[in-house]
Amino acid sequence: MTWLSPGDPDDLRARLRREFESAFGSAPDVLGRAPGRVNLMGEHTDYNAGLVLPVALPHATWAAVRRRDDDVVRIRSRQQEHGWEGTVAGCAPGGPQGWAAYAAGVLWALGTGAAEGVEPLSVPGVDLLLDSTVPVGAGLSSSAALECAVAAAVVAALGLDLDTHRPGVVAAAIRAETEVVGAPTGGMDQTVAMLAEAGAALLVDFADGSSRPVDLGLAASGLRLLVTDTRVSHALVDGGYGERRADCEEAARRLGVASLREATPARAEELDDDRLRRRARHITTEIERVRRTVEAFADDDHAALGRLLLASHVSMRDDFEISCPELDAAVETAVEAGAVGARMTGGGFGGSAVALVPAERVEAVARAIDLRFVRDGFAAPAHLLAEPGPGASVRRVGD
Ligand code: GAF
C-alpha cells in the first residue's frame, strides 16, 4: 500500500533552507507554506457563485524567498529538473510556461492590485526555491498551494503583515492561475489555502466571498478522511474543465439568471437541452448538498453524510460527467469496505476520491481499493489522511 506523507515541517524547512543556500549562495529571507486541499462538498460550484466545503491538507508547498537588489527572478523547484530565469516584467501573461508560470504569475499578479480594493505591491527581483508534498495532478490543488506559498513568502519578504494581505494574496493567486497559466478555475483552492483554520473545514460562499470555519467533529465521532489518488492525472488547462464552465454559463443565460446560484433544481429542469439541463441539475443540487452536509456534520448524522456524499458522486458521474472508471471504483469499493460515504473530489477527469471512514476501518478500506484496482487492471493508487490543517503561514529566517 502506498501512503503519501505530509513530511515533518521542521525537517522540510531545514532542508529547503540548506538547499536554497547551496543553489543561490546565501540564506533566504522568508519561508512560506501553503496547503493543498480536499473538497468535501460543492464541486464546480465556485465559479457558479455557489457554496464549497473544502479542508486544507497537512500536505503543503514550501517557498523559500530572498529579495534581490535588481529585477532578476530565478525560480527553482526540488521537484523539477529545470528552473526558470527572467525578470519581474517577464512574469506577465505570455511569459513563463509550464510549472514556473504558477510562481512567476503570482509575482506579476501581486504587482497588479489583483482585485478591487487590493493595493498593487512593488515586487522586486527574487530568488525562489520550491518544495512540495502535495501530489501533482491528483486534484488536491498543488497549483494553488504553489501560488499561495510564493505569494505569502513574497508579501512577508516585503516586510508586510501576511494576515492583512490574505485577501489580496487570494486574488493574486487566482489571477496568476487564470491569466498567466490559462486555467479558467474558480477560486476555491486559493481561498482555502489562505483562509483555512486547523481542525475545521472552510465553508465559502462565492456569492459574496464570505467564509467561515466549520467544525467537522471528526475526532469525536471517530471518523477520518481518507483520500485516494487514482494516479489518473488531471489538468485544468485541458478542455474538459473549461467546457463545463461554458455549459454552466450558457445554462444560466438560457434561464435568465446571472449565475446558476440564482437558479433552483426545479428551474434547472426547465432547460430543453439535455446536456445543459444535467449540468444545471448538478450545480443547483450540489449547492443544496453543501448546506445539508454542514448540517449533517453538526448533527453527527452518519447516514445523512453517506447519502449526501454518494448523491454528489452520482451527480458528478452522470450529470456533470467528470468522473472516470478509477474514481467510480474507488468510491464504490470504499463504501463496500465500510466507509460512511465517498465521492470524487476536485476538478475531475481523474484525480482523487475522498471517503469518510471510521478510524478502525481506514486500513481495510485502503486495502480493498488497492485490490479492486489490481482486479480492474488500473495503476496502483496512493492514499493519504486529510487531517484538517491550517492555511498559509510564513516564517522569517532567523526568527
Ligand atoms: C478545481 C478548480 F481550481 C476549482 O476552482 C474548482 O472549480 C474545482 O476544480 C472543482 O470544484 O480545483
What's a quick, concise take on this entry?
One of its GO terms (biological process) is galactose metabolic process. Belongs to the GHMP kinase family. GalK subfamily. The chain is α+β, with helices and mostly antiparallel strands.
Describe this structure in words.
This is Galactokinase. Belongs to the GHMP kinase family. GalK subfamily. Its EC number is 2.7.1.6. The longest helix is centred in the last third of the chain and has 25 residues. The chain has 399 residues and is an alpha+beta fold. The protein contains 12 helices and 13 strands. The strands form 3 sheets. The protein has a 6-stranded mixed β-sheet with strand order 5-4-6-3-1-13, sandwiched between helices. Strands 10-11-9-12 form a 4-stranded antiparallel β-sheet. A 3-stranded antiparallel β-sheet has the order 2-7-8, with helices on both faces. Bound molecules: 2-deoxy-2-fluoro-alpha-D-galactopyranose.
Keywords:
binds 2-deoxy-2-fluoro-alpha-D-galactopyranose; 2 domains; Alpha-Beta Plaits; six-stranded mixed sheet; alpha+beta; 12 helices; four-stranded antiparallel sheet; 21% strand; 399 residues; 41% helix; Ribosomal Protein S5, domain 2
Write the layout of secondary structure elements.
Blueprint: H1 9-24, E1 30-39, E2 51-52, E3 54-67, E4 72-77, E5 84-87, H2 100-110, E6 126-132, H3 142-157, H4 162-181, H5 188-195, E7 200-205, E8 210-215, H6 218-221, E9 223-229, H7 239-255, H8 265-268, H9 274-298, H10 302-319, H11 325-336, E10 341-345, E11 352-358, H12 362-375, E12 382-385, E13 393-396
Helix pairs in contact: 2-3, 2-4, 3-4, 3-5, 4-5, 7-9, 9-10, 11-12
The site of 2-deoxy-2-fluoro-alpha-D-galactopyranose has 14 residues, from helix 5.
Domain Galactokinase N-terminal: 19-67
InterPro entries: Galactokinase, GalKase_N, GHMP_kinase_C_dom, GHMP_kinase_C_sf, GHMP_kinase_N_dom, GHMP_knse_ATP-bd_CS, Mevalonate/galactokinase, Ribosomal_Su5_D2-typ_SF
Protein name: Galactokinase
